[in-house]
Each structure stands twice: as structure tokens, then as C-alpha cells.
């Protein structure tokens, strides 16, 4: 049983989440549904039929090849790929090939449309249908069955013209076969659409591969990143010292329990993770002048050296943590990642291998490649595998200066990528302090310095977090158990 305040907070959080889920609908299609595969079969058949029939008829101009074959075939196959590969989480992206197909229907020759008024009305109808599809699949309209008339109407029109075609029925049927298969596949897809009922957030337009867009920020918070563009010019420096006698006892206890490599890095990181469970806005980042949240994915980055020598190579690793992780979870995840890159004589992590390929590119071309990567990152279009390899994309970069025998430094943030916090801690130090009774007492401290992106949260939020962080480090034993509650960031 929790305190009345905690119980009230849980009820408020539950009601908030229920309200969010009630106004959010997330559609998906599953590869386990036979209707999804029938849809894919019809769509692929439509693309093949379009190529074969157009090839038999012949096209004399290259621009017609692009508009009458390449465009519709590419749109159809792209629809199938999105539905089969990303239909579980990103079904809304099928709107992209729908708009491409709408463009095809708008530019292809229309023998049945006589005048400019009818043509304008026809294009307006296509535009409306594309907007309707995008609105429904993005969850703004709750009823997927509204797509039925959208796809049934073209089939009804084809059936009507077939009934009045007379002797030309066979020719018309052959010419309309790609469209019949296309809209038949779309109709099957409507019956395959399901609604996510797991109560979890699922991506939609505006989200990135590595985070969801925060859409309910205050107006000033939404526009700040447009005035303060570079991450390093928006950095706040924070320094704190922690008395660690109790942390040392905690570390010794964990080592006696079998966690032989357990150290202060694990404690500091586990406390940060527990802090994010209570203050989830620390797991935000700025990208493309927008604010995003990583949700429960806390991506911790660090540099690893094989040996503590000048000649020893180093590399970066990324560890995925969650707000539910305990100190033991953090220990096992971090050590597993470190051991993975130390297996070979040379540190050959994925990012090192990727950079080796970049080094083969001539300097002038490499500048363009880097510019292109920054552009893709700005619009959230970097592939997932690049985001996973990149040490510049994450929740926190944390480094130990203590292992080098020096005090911590203020390490700058990276303008490329989206890491909003860089922490460093130094070697242990001793201090003699005068107690209230006038006696002298020797205590052990560790100094920690953070460089923080001020645009993700305000100063009050940071201050509240670090006061909680201090309390956690004063009682590290609480990190042995999962948090009682994990608070969700706002939408």
C-alpha cells in the first residue's frame, strides 16, 4: 500500500493515459492475417499486369513510361512492402504510395472526361480521397470501414462501364485488369486492418525512428529550438560532489554477492536510470528543431579502451536501458556490451567498421556525404541501423575520468546527433570536515560534472532531478528493486 499522495498520483496518471489512448487510434495489419497476404497477391498481380498490358500496347514516349508504368508499379509495390514489413507499427506510411497512386490517376489519359470542369472535379476527388486515407490511417478518424466506399466506388464504376461496353467488353476488361486487382487488394486490406489495444504508444506522422514527437509543449518551448539552433550554444554546466562512503559499502556488498566488476559507474548510471523513471523528460532530445521523447528506451553511450595504454584503441558502445532496470540489470547489460567489443584484439565495433568505409571516400565527396547524413538526420530519415551504430545519438554519454586518475571535465555536447546530456566523474578524493561537535572527520567524495541541453526541460526540472539523484546515491540500496512507479512523459 502506498501513501495517499502516491495513490492519487497513480490514479491521475492512469486516467491521463486512458484519456490519451481514447483519443488515439493506431491501426495495423499483421502478416499472420491471410487477408494481408491476399492483398499483397492482388497488388503484385496488379503491378505485373500493368507492365505486361502496357508492354503489349506499347508506349512511344519516355515520359509516358515513367508516368504510366514506373510510377504506378513503384507505388503498388511500395504499398505491399510497407504493409508486410512495417504494417505492425508503421501502417500509416502506406499513405505515401497512396498519394503516388493518386498522382498516377491524375496524370494518366482520361478518354471519358470531356472538359476542364470535369477534369478539375476529378482531380479534386482524387485529392480528397488521398487526404481521407491519410487521415484515417494516421488515427485521426477512428473508423477504418470509412475506407470501404473509397475503394468500392472505383470497382463499381469499372463494373458499370463494363456493363455498357457491348462488344468492347473484353478489351475494356483487359485494360482495367490492373486497376481491378489494385482496388480488390485495397478492399481486402480494409478487412485486415486491426486496432492496437495494448495501451502502448505507437508511432505516427512526425515521429522519428528513435523517438516520438512531443506535441503538447508550451508555445515558447516549441519555438525555442528555432532561435537556439546549435546544441553547444544551449548548454548548461552543472557540477556536484557526492559523499561516497555508503556507496563504497554498497559496492563491496555487491562484489561479495558475485558481481565482481561492480563499480561506481554502475551505481551512478543506475541512479540516473531510476531518476528518469520519476522524471521522464530527461529522456528527451532536440532534432530538426523539434522536441522528441525516447520513452522507455534510455540509450547510454560510452567510450571503451581495451587496455589502459596510450597505444590501445578505443571505440564507442551503446547500451539500451529502461526505467525499470535495477542496479543489477544495469551491471549485466553494461558489462555484456563491454565484453562484446573486447573479444577481439582490435576493437571492431559496428561504428568503427562503418567509419573505415567513410575513410575510403575522397575528402570533397566525404563532406557531401556528411552533409547528406545531417540533412537526413534533420528530417528524421536516418535508417535505424545508422542510429544504432552512431555514438552521437542517445540519451546520455557518461565517462569516467577516475579511471584516468584525474578530476572530471566539462565535455561538450555534439552538434551532430541528439545526445542532450554528457556526464563525467573523476577519481575519489578525501576531505577533512569539521563536525557540529568540533571534531574532525575524514570523508570520501567523488566529483561529477554534467553538460546539459537546456532546451529539453527548464532549470527547475533539472534542479528537481538532481536533488532526487542525490537522494538515490545517498541510499543506493533502493536501486536493488524496480521502481514502484514509472511516470510517462507527456504527449
Can I get a quick summary?
The protein has 491 residues and is α+β, with helices and mostly antiparallel strands. Helix content is 49%, strand content 14%. Strand 7 and strand 8 (314-321) form a beta hairpin.
What features would you describe in this structure?
The relative contact order is 0.11. Strands 4, 7, 8, 9, 10, 11 and 12 form a 7-stranded mixed beta sheet that branches. The chain has a 3-stranded antiparallel beta sheet with strand order 3-6-5, covered by helices on one side. By secondary structure, the protein is α+β, with helices and mostly antiparallel strands. It has helices at residues 4-22, 34-57, 62-85, 95-107, 116-137, 147-163, 169-192, 219-227, 245-256, 264-278, 327-341, 350-359, 363-378, 384-389, 459-474; strands at 27-28, 194-195, 212-213, 235-243, 284-287, 290-293, 298-305, 314-321, 396-400, 421-425, 429-434, 440-453. The longest helix has 24 residues, at 34-57.
Count of helical stretches = 15
Low-confidence stretches: 1-22
Net shape? elongated
Radius of gyration: 29 Å
Mean pLDDT across all amino acids: 87
Structural class call reads: alpha+beta
- Strand fraction: 5-15%
DSSP helix fraction: 40-55%
Number of strands: 12
Compute the separation of the termini in Å.
Answer: 29 Å
Largest sheet: 7 strands, mixed
Question: What's the layout of helices and strands?
Answer:
Layout: H1 4-22, E1 27-28, H2 34-57, H3 62-85, H4 95-107, H5 116-137, H6 147-163, H7 169-192, E2 194-195, E3 212-213, H8 219-227, E4 235-243, H9 245-256, H10 264-278, E5 284-287, E6 290-293, E7 298-305, E8 314-321, H11 327-341, H12 350-359, H13 363-378, H14 384-389, E9 396-400, E10 421-425, E11 429-434, E12 440-453, H15 459-474
Parallel strand pairs: 7-9, 9-10
Antiparallel strand pairs: 1-2, 3-6, 4-12, 5-6, 7-8, 10-12, 11-12
Helix pairs in contact: 2-3, 2-7, 3-4, 4-5, 6-7, 10-11, 10-15
Amino acid at each position: 500500500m502506498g501513501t495517499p499522495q502516491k495513490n492519487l498520483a497513480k490514479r491521475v496518471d492512469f486516467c491521463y493515459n486512458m484519456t490519451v489512448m481514447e483519443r488515439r487510434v493506431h491501426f495495423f495489419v499483421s502478416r499472420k492475417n491471410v487477408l494481408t497476404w491476399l492483398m499483397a497477391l492482388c497488388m503484385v498481380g496488379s503491378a505485373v499486369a500493368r507492365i505486361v498490358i502496357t508492354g503489349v500496347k506499347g508506349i512511344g514516349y519516355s515520359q509516358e513510361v515513367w508516368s504510366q508504368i514506373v510510377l504506378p508499379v513503384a507505388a503498388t509495390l511500395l504499398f505491399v512492402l510497407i504493409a508486410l514489413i512495417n504494417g505492425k507499427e508503421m501502417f500509416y506510411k502506406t499513405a505515401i504510395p497512396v498519394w503516388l497512386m493518386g498522382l498516377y490517376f491524375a496524370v494518366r489519359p482520361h478518354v471519358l472526361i470531356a472538359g476542364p470542369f470535369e477534369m478539375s472535379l476529378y482531380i479534386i476527388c482524387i485529392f480528397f480521397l488521398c487526404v481521407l486515407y491519410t487521415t484515417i490511417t494516421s488515427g485521426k478518424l477512428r473508423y477504418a470501414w470509412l475506407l470501404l466506399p473509397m475503394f468500392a466506388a472505383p470497382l463499381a464504376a469499372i463494373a458499370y462501364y463494363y456493363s455498357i461496353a457491348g462488344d468492347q467488353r473484353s478489351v475494356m476488361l483487359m485494360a482495367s485488369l490492373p486497376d481491378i486487382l489494385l482496388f480488390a487488394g485495397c478492399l481486402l486490406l480494409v478487412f485486415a486492418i486491426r486496432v492496437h489495444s495494448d495501451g502502448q504508444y505507437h508511432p505516427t506522422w512526425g515521429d522519428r525512428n528513435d523517438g516520438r514527437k512531443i506535441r503538447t509543449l508550451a508555445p515558447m518551448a516549441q519555438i525555442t529550438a528555432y532561435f537556439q539552433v546549435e546544441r553547444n550554444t544551449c548548454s548548461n554546466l552543472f557540477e556536484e560532489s557526492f559523499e561516497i562512503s555508503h556507496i563504497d559499502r554498497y559496492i563491496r556488498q555487491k562484489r561479495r554477492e558475485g558481481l565482481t566488476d561492480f563499480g561506481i559507474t554502475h551505481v551512478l548510471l543506475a541512479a540516473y536510470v531510476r531518476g528518469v523513471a520519476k522524471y521522464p523528460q530527461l529522456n528527451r532530445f532536440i532534432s530538426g528543431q523539434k522536441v522528441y521523447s525516447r520513452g522507455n528506451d534510455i540509450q547510454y553511450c560510452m567510450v571503451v579502451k581495451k587496455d589502459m595504454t596510450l597505444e590501445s584503441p578505443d571505440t564507442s558502445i551503446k547500451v539500451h536501458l529502461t526505467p525499470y532496470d535495477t542496479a543489477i540489470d544495469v551491471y549485466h547489460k553494461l558489462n555484456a556490451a563491454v565484453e562484446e567489443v573486447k573479444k577481439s584484439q582490435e576493437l571492431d565495433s559496428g561504428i568503427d567498421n562503418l567509419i573505415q568505409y567513410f575513410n575510403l571516400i575522397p575528402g570533397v565527396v566525404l563532406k557531401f556525404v556528411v552533409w547528406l547524413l545531417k540533412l537526413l538526420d534533420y528530417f528524421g530519415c536516418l535508417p535505424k541501423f545508422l542510429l544504432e551504430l552512431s555514438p552521437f545519438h542517445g540519451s546520455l554519454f557518461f565517462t569516467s575520468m577516475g579511471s584516468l586518475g584525474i578530476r572530471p571535465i566539462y565535455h561538450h555536447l555534439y552538434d551532430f546527433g541528439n545526445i542532450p546530456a554528457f556526464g563525467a566523474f573523476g577519481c575519489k578524493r578525501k576531505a577533512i570536515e569539521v563536525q557540529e561537535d568540533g571534531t574532525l572527520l575524514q570523508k570520501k567524495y567523488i566529483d561529477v560534472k554534467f553538460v546539459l541541453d537546456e532546451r529539453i526541460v527548464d532549470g527547475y526540472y533539472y534542479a528537481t532531478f538532481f536533488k532526487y539523484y542525490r537522494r538515490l546515491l545517498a541510499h543506493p540500496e533502493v536501486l536493488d528493486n524496480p521502481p514502484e512507479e514509472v511516470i510517462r512523459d507527456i504527449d
